[in-house]
Design a protein that fits this description.
InterPro entries: AraC_E-bd, DNA-bd_dom_put_sf, GyrI-like, MerR-type_HTH_dom, MerR_fam, Reg_factor_effector_dom_sf. Residues 8-78 form the HTH merR-type domain. It comes from Streptomyces kasugaensis. One of its GO terms (molecular function) is DNA-binding transcription factor activity. By secondary structure, the chain is α+β, with helices and mostly antiparallel strands. The protein folds into 2 domains: 5-77, Multidrug-efflux Transporter Regulator, Chain: A, Domain 2, CATH 1.10.1660.10; 122-272, Multidrug-efflux Transporter 1 Regulator Bmrr, Chain A. The protein contains 7 helices and 12 strands. It has helices spanning 11-18, 22-30, 52-64, 69-76, 82-117, 149-163, 227-241; strands spanning 9-10, 38-39, 46-48, 122-123, 127-131, 134-143, 173-177, 187-195, 206-210, 213-221, 249-254, 266-272. Strands 4, 5, 6, 7, 8, 9, 10, 11 and 12 form a 9-stranded antiparallel β-sheet that branches. The protein is elongated and about 95 Å long.
Length: 276
Amino acid sequence: MDHGGDGLLRIGTFSTLSRISVRMLRHYQEHGVLAPALVDPFSGHRYYRSDQLAQAHLAVQLRDAGFPVEAIARLLASTADPARVDAALDARREELSRRREELHAQLVALDQVRSTLKGHPKMTDVTVKTLPEMVTASLRRVVPRYGDEGTLWQEIMPLLQRAGAPFPAGGISGATFHDPEHRESDVDIEVWVQVAETFAPAAPLVCRREPAREIVTATLTGDYARMPAVTGALGAFLAEHRMETGPMFNIYRVSPARIPDPGSWITDVCFPVVPR
């Protein structure tokens, strides 16, 4: 490769070594990212020092990490201040993590659209029945989103084991959603497990006897992506019969924790009836 005078690299050679196109090198010069060491006043040819390759390689890495050209210029000018650079990298990582979560949620929503368009899910008719009296152990918290319900289950199970809570054969478990309306964030959820008898729990675990309740319910078999069809049927039933209800809750007959296959999940979607 040809080298310029005074031990400098021609822009074409520098482009090859840095993996930055000549067009982009000129763009970087315009935005203060990487200026040539010398510009020939007669020919306009640009030349770079070999030690500028380290800066060029860092610029490429920052570009690949999604930093805009203005931010790249600031960071390259701040390499003598590692704390400032680290803060910028941490902020970018947090931003990318948020975007990854958003993209994952959009992919899930896309699958739900496909599932909805496939037709009616496997579900029972809406019925009114009596849920028998039972004793439950529960944990209630406000979590960031509905999808964070799983963190409550991860917390409650060790608490139940330490408490030595007795479980009846065929007992049920579920989650109650206490907010009076759907929330985009800060969701009030209580997860609960049926136990055989009352016991003295340590906080934050709560044990109480639930009275028998009349409920409106329908059962979904399969992925939660099909849940809108179930809630739609429940809504039509409640409107038709002019029923007032309390907080919605789910009973997990077959849960993801028990069987990973979504096609095998069985969920009772329930609303307690408020007596007139």
